[in-house]
Design goal:
By secondary structure, this protein is an alpha/beta fold. 51% of the residues lie in helices and 16% in strands. The protein folds into five domains: 237 residues, 3-Layer(aba) Sandwich (Rossmann fold), CATH 3.40.50; 126 residues, Rossmann fold (3-Layer(aba) Sandwich), CATH 3.40.50.620; 101 residues, no CATH class; 185 residues, Signal transduction histidine kinase, dimerisation/phosphotransfer (DHp) domain (Helix Hairpins, Orthogonal Bundle), CATH 1.10.287; 145 residues, 2-Layer Sandwich (Heat Shock Protein 90). GO terms for molecular function: ATP binding; identical protein binding; phosphorelay sensor kinase activity.
Length: 881
């Protein structure tokens, strides 16, 4: 039940994701002239009558009067004119259509190639942008323009279609409308000139529009539409939780760059589409150097696979079968797709083919072997020649190593007296195996075998062997050379694979270490840019939240447009892509959990080609940088939340304190004033004097509260100005004590001031206020019969003022917190009688002078000591008095 619910949830999520943005309706035909545009315009007129906002982005009528008549009454957007090679070309005005933002846009000929200078190379990319903007699109396409059917159409018609649309575009479908016309009627339309001009029609009838071709294309169109309807049905059943849905398993296709890669990619796409399964394309590298032609084919096949919606990866290992099976096991693959591998005599003698290895070891996988046209052609030609398996460099190296071995063996035999010369040739074979591929090592082993026999086995300078032991010697040498070469080659491949994996892991580890030490967004961008430049040998540029690194880089207008596109749509763009390919940089989006966070741009030293290793490493580093950006954003949000919570707590405490501590003196003042106003004549002079003193004392008490609030506000906003002056310590303490006794006449204070204390250069009023706050706090909790003690002395050149009381004291775990604003406890030096600001203000005022305030236990464990320390500063010369 849990798995069924998870599948249902996944289906619902997929459905909701597809519903986001615009939705696409495709009018699919088997061939030109079946009436796709006519049907689309008819549907648009019906929607217009229903009140829908329909705009014609671009429609090609090709001079057909019936089709042109259907555009009457529809809003037609003016086309954009583009100058190219001395003439003007007209294309759909994408920006104008986005600005107009209709409910439905009509965009004809989805596979059309845009004029040079357009934002996108293909019209289907324009349609994707419209869909991302939330605009529904109605469009047309013929079945031969579907990317995965390109080879099938070529085999049927003999025509290679250059304008294709990736199958992944169909994932944005809402509806597919099959526009069908029997082949005989379509041919009749051709004869009538309703599809092409007469001279073009006659040529088309002899080539593309033959009855057999049209029947086959019609079948393909029907099958594609049926597959789409079937996929929609399966998705709907899964979303409704209906049983019987198969699990989605991955399809893995392996390519080798030997002339069949793109064919296999397209075939695998069709297999994955029919099975509703995710798929990926991989190649296995068993050496660190790949022939340039093979690498170019692999790059093109990977680009095609990504356009068709596949994942791509480069695997490394000494055995292709091991690498494929390990990858399949780790990624939940059910089907392996690969081209037919031809058996060779050498392979039968020493090793099994890849197909045989997979058949023997891949018992849990479905193995699909596809024979490509190139493989069949090679079979008719007798297969590849042996030297086709070797690069020119490898063959030359094998020949030179064998010749060098002959020379070294001759010198060793004549001048050193070495009898067993086979080891010289084995060393040469091992050297070749350590520097090239296994095939070159086998060639070197065979050449060394022949040279050893010809030059050093009796009778010399002939391939005949005179003694029986000589036959055994040379054949054992051949076996030893082949085994040594294979072992050396395998070890080299392992070293190469480990070196590549280590280089990527080292780069990611270095990036992670740099990002871990980045505290804010600026440091993250700087660390990411440096790591990218160091690991990829590329010029890196990043932009996140409008902040760029490095700042002030002058990007071209096209580069800016590519960067904006990548960030907005979350897709790579710029150089090495199909979107704004003329840009100077390759732009990658930085994706987070809430969409695109920013964009990074890379300009490589070798702009001609982007290696798969560079692509994978750049994408992995982009993910790490994006996660670091998310981390800094979360830290900032948490800090904001913490500050907001602390602010709210302080506000609540302030309101509670003010409402209580300010109301009490106000109530006393209002009560005394009301009594005086009502009973002035009836009161004696002493009573009136007592009420007036109450009003004065409570007013002064209220003034102290308000002054504390104002001082705390000034401290919190750095608005406290220090007007320093010289004052004696005894004068400072005496003023604070007199002020306290004026408010609390019954308090006892004992002051001890060291006789050698110098005058201090401070802000007298502020330090007096700080000492007064400490004295007032001590007086509140000191017993009536116990005095408050003040002890001032000079310790290590620092003035120390200790204010001691004999109250209940403060627990050790709360001593540091008593200096927080509004912190209240019912024990110790904090109670309900104050605002909770006195000691906080004291700490702020003393701290402004470079001093400190701390709470300590009493001398005998009873009471509390508040210690104020102040440095003895002197004014600068210009401020001396």
């Amino acid at each position: 039940m849990t798995d069924a619910r998870e599948r249902q949830a996944d289906a619902l999520i997929d459905h909701l994701q597809r519903e986001q943005g615009g939705r696409m309706t495709i009018f699919l035909g088997a061939a030109p002239g079946v009436g796709k545009t006519y049907t689309m315009l008819s549907r648009a007129r019906e929607l217009r009558r229903q009140g829908r906002d329909v705009v014609v982005g671009i429609v090609e009528t090709h001079g057909r009067g019936e089709t042109a008549a259907l555009t009457e009454g529809l809003e037609i957007l003016p086309r954009r004119r583009i100058a190219y090679q001395g003439r003007w070309l007209e294309e759909m005005d994408l920006d104008a259509l986005l600005a107009r933002r209709p409910q439905i846009a009509l965009v004809d000929e989805l596979a059309h190639r845009n004029a040079p200078g357009s934002r996108h190379e293909r019209r289907w990319q324009d349609v994707i942008e419209l869909l991302d903007a939330g605009i529904d699109v109605h469009t047309t396409i013929n079945i031969q323009h579907l990317e995965s059917l390109n080879d099938v159409v070529h085999r049927i018609t003999g025509v290679r279609v250059s304008e294709t649309v990736p199958d992944a575009v169909f994932d944005r479908l809402r509806d597919i409308v099959l526009v069908d016309l029997p082949p005989r009627e379509l041919i009749e339309r051709l004869h009538q000139g309703k599809v092409y001009l007469p001279e073009q029609a006659s040529q088309a009838l002899q080539a593309f529009f033959s009855p057999s071709n049209l029947i086959a294309l019609r079948e393909l169109a029907m099958q594609t539409a049926a597959d789409r309807v079937d996929a929609d049905l399966r998705e709907d059943q899964a979303a409704r939780g209906l049983p019987g849905m198969p699990l989605r398993r991955r399809v893995l296709v392996a390519i080798d760059g030997l002339g069949q890669s793109e064919y296999l990619v397209r075939a695998a796409r069709r297999i994955a589409e029919r099975r509703d399964a995710p798929w990926s394309v991989v190649t296995v590298q068993v050496s660190d150097t790949v022939d340039e032609v093979r690498q170019r084919e692999i790059d093109q096949a990977f680009a095609l696979a990504r356009r068709l919606g596949a994942e791509t990866d480069v695997l490394r290992g000494t055995r292709i079968a091991d690498a494929l099976l390990d990858h399949a096991t780790q990624n939940g693959t059910s089907t392996l797709v690969l081209g037919r591998t031809r058996e060779r005599p050498v392979a039968r003698m020493f090793n099994r083919t890849l197909t045989q290895q997979l058949l023997q070891r891949g018992a849990h996988y479905e193995l699909v072997i596809i024979s490509t046209p190139e493989a069949r052609a090679r079979a008719r030609r007798g297969g590849p020649r042996p030297w086709d398996l070797l690069g020119r460099h490898d063959l030359t190296f094998a020949l030179m190593a064998s010749m060098l071995a002959v020379g070294v063996a001759a010198v060793a035999e004549r001048w050193v007296g070495l009898d067993d010369l086979s080891m010289v040739f084995i060393v040469a074979v091992v050297l070749v195996a350590a520097r090239t591929r296994m095939t070159a090592a086998m060639v070197a082993a065979l050449l060394s075998f022949l040279a050893y026999n010809f030059f050093f086995i009796e009778p010399r300078f002939t391939f005949n062997i005179g003694a029986r032991q000589g036959v055994t010697t040379v054949f054992l040498f051949l076996v030893a050379a082949l085994v040594a070469g294979r072992l050396a080659s395998r070890l080299r491949m392992q070293v190469v694979a480990l070196r590549a994996a280590n280089a990527q892991a080292t780069a990611l580890q270095a990036l992670g270490r740099d990002l871990a030490g980045a505290a804010d967004l600026g440091q993250v961008l700087a660390a990411g840019r440096k790591a990218l430049a160091r690991a990829l040998s590329a010029e890196a540029w990043l932009r996140v939240q409008g902040r760029e690194e490095p700042d002030g880089v002058a990007l071209s207008e096209l580069d800016r447009a590519a960067a904006d596109w990548a960030q907005q749509h979350g897709q790579p763009t710029g150089r090495h892509t199909d979107t704004l390919a003329g840009a100077g940089r390759w732009f990658l989006p930085l994706r987070g959990d809430r969409g695109s966070l920013g964009v990074l741009g890379l300009r490589f030293d070798d702009e001609a080609r982007l290696l798969p290793e560079q692509r994978r490493l750049a994408e992995a580093m982009a993910e790490d940088i994006a996660q670091a950006v998310v981390r800094t954003r979360l830290v900032a949000e948490l800090e904001d939340a913490r500050v907001g919570g602390e602010t709210e707590r302080l506000r609540s405490a302030l309101l509670s304190s003010v409402s209580h501590d300010l109301r009490s003196p106000l109530a006393s003042m209002i009560g005394s004033a009301s009594s005086l106003a009502s009973y002035w004549d009836a009161m004696s002079g002493d009573d009136r004097r007592a009420l007036l003193e109450t009003i004065q004392q409570e007013g002064e008490r209220l003034d102290r509260y308000i002054q504390n609030l104002l001082d705390m506000t000034r401290l919190g906003h750095s608005g406290l100005t220090l007007n320093r002056d010289w004052i004696g310590v005894d004068e400072l303490l005496g003023s604070a004590v007199q002020r306290l006794q004026r408010y609390q006449p019954g308090v006892q204070v004992q002051t001890t001031v060291a006789p050698d204390l110098p005058a201090i250069w401070v802000h007298p009023a502020l330090i007096e206020q700080a000492v007064f706050n400490v004295l007032e706090n001590a007086a509140k909790f000191s017993p009536p019969d116990e005095p408050v003690r003040i002890d001032a002395k000079l310790i290590d050149g620092v003035l120390r003022i200790d204010v001691s009381d004999r109250g209940p004291g403060i627990p050790e775990d709360e001593r540091a917190r008593i200096f927080d604003m509004f912190y209240s406890v019912e024990r110790g030096d904090r109670g309900r009688q104050g605002t909770g600001l006195g000691l906080a203000i004291c700490q702020g005022m003393v701290g402004a002078h470079g001093g400190s305030v701390q709470a300590l236990p009493g001398p005998d464990g009873r009471g509390t000591v508040i210690r104020i320390t102040l440095p003895l500063l002197t004014p600068p010369p210009q401020e001396s008095v």
